[in-house]
Amino acid sequence: MATVEVPYQETVPLHHPKTWLGKYVFSQDHKVIAIQYGVTAMAVGLVALFLSELMRIQLAFPGAMPWFTADMYYQSITMHGMIMVIYLLTAFLLGAFGNFCIPLMCGARDMAFPFVNMLSYWVYLISVILLLLSYVVPGGPTGAGWTLYPPQTITAGTPGDDWGIAMMLISLAVFIAAFTMGGLNYITTILQARTRGMTLMRMPLTVWGIFIATFLGLIAFPALFVSAVMMLLDKFLGTSFFMPAIVSLGKSLDYSGGQPLLFQHLFWFFGHPEVYIVALPAFGVISDLISVHARKNIFGYRMMVWAIVAIGILSLVVWAHHMYVAGMHPYFGFFFATTTLIIAVPTALKVYNWLLTLWRANIRLTVPMLWALAFVLTFIVGGITGLFLGNVIIDIPLSDTYFVVAHFHMVMGVSPIFAIFGGIYHWYPKLSGRMLNDKIGLLHFYITFIGTYLIYFPMHYLGFIGTPRRYYETGVTEVTGFYPQSAHDLNVFITCVALFVGVSQLLFVYNLIVSLKKGKKAGDNPWGANSLEWRTPDTPPGHGNWGERLPTVHRWAYDFGVSHGDQDHIPQDVPKQKSN
Amino acid sequence: MRVALLILAVVVGSVIFNFTTPFHLGQIASNWGLIDVTIWITFVLCGLAFIILGILMAWWIYTYQYQPGQLAEYEPEDPVLEGRLTILTTIGVVVMLAPGLIAWNDYIAVPEDAIELEVFSEQWTWSFRLPGEDGIFGYAHNKNIDIIANPMGIRDDDPYAQDDLVIETNIVKVPVDKKIKVLLRSKDVLHDFWVPEIRAKMDSVPGMVTYFWFEPTRTGVFEILCAELCGSSHHAMRGEMHIVTREEYQLWLDDQITWAERKAGVVPLTPVQQLGQTVARDNGCFACHNTTGAAGTPGPTWKGMWGTEVELDDGSIVTRDEAYVRESITNPGAKLVKGFSNTMLQLSDDVTTEDIDALIEYLKTTTPAVE
Q1: How many whole angstroms separate alpha carbon B219 and alpha carbon B217?
Q2: What is the pLDDT of residues A423-437, one digit of tens each?
Q3: pLDDT tens across A530-572, in order?
């Protein structure tokens, strides 16, 4: 076989920690860092969940919480959105899954730069702390919406226009530094530290998803970084990058000649790839979960890889579909509507291939598989509503309504969260050596899947009647009746479901904690999977992951449905000639 | 098994909900029926895709459940099938995109015979301007804004400006069956002028003039919403658009005043009143109060306030005379207007009694005698 020896990884002297602190806190082991990322992201995610419940209560029962002012509502939408998109989803899918999966799945001993990897987590933690500290600065956090559109972001009339926005922008800049350290590590590790025989086209799709997502992040995040810096300059040094001459609440400001649309372009040049930074790792995880638990090879592996690459490239040229009503040149509408609908083709192919993988499979309905199936259905709904909003003329009536809220929660809220849940249920046995409790897992799954569907599916229809998003209260309108009492009743229903689903997430937290000690012993490969992380000599894998020698890869990760002794699958490191 | 039935239930339930829910696009009131058609085409195609994919998924999960000893079919890929699916999806996308782009082409091409209407947005209200008899707007820029004398920033000496009709209220009337080009300006932050029944919407961006056009097709009263987050009272930034017959429109037009008339009607401030205005400005009063009648601000508007009765939060009625206003300035929490909370700060010690006297003189001017 024409594989090259990889002496570097084989002999790399790992820096084994000698103290408790070095092993569990300032650890350079990618698995510990993955857990740190995961726990931090989930903790801050619970904050975002709590904020969303406050908003839902306000929408359904205005006045029920007299202390919850409009300012607090707008601060909540901002913090909820930013936390979910950046500090939870990006951090979890890349920071936790990326860290855990890349070295194990590629057959490496650790990340290429373990120290930088550790630094990446600690800098991320600082960004989270800075973000949460904005609750204690004068004026509280910014209430400009997670899109942070100027001028309102930095003018009076928006909560947190002073300290709050500064904290937000600085926190984002720090996060981007953390992401860059992590991202360079992921790419270098994938390109340089794969074990013998692990060609790119043998990599599990999880690694492919994370790989392309990281590329996107490294291209897109700098746009957010510069816009954060420019906005800080506008706010504190009086430049006018984004600020035209305006009269803010009766006061003429000293700005002149700036262009608010410039910020929107920069923001969405980051913001749209960001959707795929979250989606691509989720695609990868789901592909692997479906294949493993359906006991069948993923259908059309090459197509799946090229679809990920194509989506990644196309995602860089669709950003202005978020700006159809922003006042940019109308001809842009033709271009961005076309590119946006083109991206639907590779995305649809991925969905077809997931479904075709189920065809004539031997499906085990394990908890991770249920999450994966729920992901596919949710993603179909979120994807096709994207075809509405991507088509410029349809976006005109639907933009800034609850249709958009429902769409993006389905496609980039609920779906990636399902992928995260699926991934956790799938990899927890490898991470901890124990299985998560199935009964609690099933309960958690059914509540969350049915619940989120009941929340978001009817919400599209609130958008059709024209309910505007980001409204502290809609108020049943008597003038024209576009928002009738029945729509408000629907809002009450949605809130009740949301509260129930929100509280039910504690089941998951409970399961994670209790199973750590009391879970069933997992063994090395409880799911009968093929990829390398299930082939480590120890479970959980020790520092350095592998024994004396790194594994050698002889095949792709999807040899399911083939007999191998008494098993129906052949792991990646089993040589070809020994099998059939 | 259970999950297969659940997925089937989700698909069936979604279809039933779709056909029984009253929540669909409201009855359209403009020429943009093509938008509704495009939505309908997309809805049908996407709906079918959702139903087919959902049923296949439920069916296959049900049929191919795990059986020990069973082997799944080994089929790495099928380029022919994948190619066909690609082509099918591409056709679907083209069918949805084509009418969308055709409609967009109409949407951005404003007919020459459209009449123009300027929508001026600010935190958190709307006002309007019409070009007047010459059909041409006078030049306007935020730098020209004086919140009392020139709230829209119209250039004083522009000959085209003199006959512009200025409508300083959040209610506007438009004639039915007449093409209207809406020009959008903003005084402060992003806003978005939106009437759901018209379908069209567009952000207003400070420093730019944005536009869209529509033709009202039925008369009625419609709610104007702000569709772009614009600060604390975004949700309260409402207005009304009345689509009326041409006769009624003409009567309404006759009632509006021109820029020249408005200027003539504005009594210049006396030095004392000017001092009062400066006091108001320097002490940040305009952060919460205004003279434009905008709703949703943290403090009550000053426009039309002087001498009128108002209900307090304890239900009593008080006349806003000099004694009341003076007390409200010096002791903000003493008597609160119903619906407002006591967030007003005490004036700093630098503000002298003369300053407060001047401020009161200025406040009197915010209630025009003509109204």
Answers
A1: 7
A2: 999 999 999 999 999
A3: 999 999 999 899 888 988 889 999 999 999 999 888 889 999 9
Dihedral (CA of A478, A484, A485, A491) sign: negative
The answer to whether A164 and A155 are in contact (CB under 8 A) is no
SS (H, E, C) chain B: CHHHHHHHHHHHHHHHHHHHCCCCCCCCCECCHHHHHHHHHHHHHHHHHHHHHHHHHHHHHHHCECCCCCCCCCCCCCHHHHHHHHHHHHHHHHHHHHHHHHHHHHHHCCCCCCEEEEEEEECCEEEEEECCCCCCCCCECHHHCECCCECCCECCCCHHHCCCEEECCCEEEEECCCCEEEEEEECCCCEEEECHHHCCEEEECCCCCEEEEECECCCEEEEEEECCCCCCCHHHCEEEEEEECHHHHHHHHHHCEEHHHHHHHCCCCCHHHHHHHHHHHHCCHHHCCCCCCCCCCCCCCCCCCCCCEEEECCCCEEECCHHHHHHHHHCCCCCCECCCCCCCCCCCCCCCHHHHHHHHHHHHHCCCCCC
Mean pLDDT, to the nearest integer, of B40-53?
95
Q: How far is CA A196 from CA A6, A239, A572, B26, B209, in A?
A: 7, 54, 11, 62, 61
Question: In terms of Cα–Cα distance, which of A421, A295, A406, A422 is closest to A359?
Answer: A295
Give the H or E element holding residue A33: helix A30-60
CB interface of B with A, residues 182-221, below 8 Å? 184, 186-190, 192, 194, 196-197, 199-208, 210, 220-221
Interface of A with B in 483-512 (CB under 8 A): 484, 486-487, 490
Q: How far is CA A12 from the centre of its chain?
A: 33
Strand partners of residue B318:
B310
d(CA A216, CA A281) in angstroms, rounded, equals 12
* A553 in contact with B, Cβ within 8 Å: no
Chain B residues inside the 8 Å CB shell of A70? 232-233, 235
ipTM at complex level: 0.92
State mean pLDDT over B242-253: 95
Please name which of A384, A377, A355, A447 lies closest in space to residue B8, comparing C-alpha atoms.
A377
Quote the CA–CA distance of A555 and B274 in Å, as a whole number: 84
Whose tokens are 């904050």? That residue is A47
Cis previous bond, A268, omega within 30 = no
Q: Which domains does chain B have, with CATH numbers?
A: 2-64+77-108 (no CATH), 115-264 (2.60.40.420), 267-365 (1.10.760.10)
Q: Contact, B226 vs B194, CB < 8 A?
A: yes
Higher-confidence residue: A484 or B65?
A: B65
Tokens representing residue A297 in the block:
């090879």
Residues from chain A that touch B60, judged by Cβ atoms under 8 A, are 355, 358-359, 361, 363
Say if residue A151 is preceded by a cis peptide, omega within 30 of 0. yes
How many CB atoms are closer than 10 A to CB A50?
12
Is residue A103 exposed (0-12), middle (13-18) or buried (19+ Cβ within 10 Å)?
buried
Paired strand residues for B65: A363
Inter-residue contact B128 to B90 (CB < 8 Å): no
Angle at B184 between CA B182 and CA B186, to 5 degrees: 160
- The H or E element containing residue A562 is strand A560-564
B51 to chain A, closest Cα gap in Å: 10
Nearest-angstrom CA–CA distance, A351 and A160? 42
- CB-closest option in A345, A399, A400 to B90: A345
The answer to whether the CB of B341 falls within 8 A of the CB of B332 is no
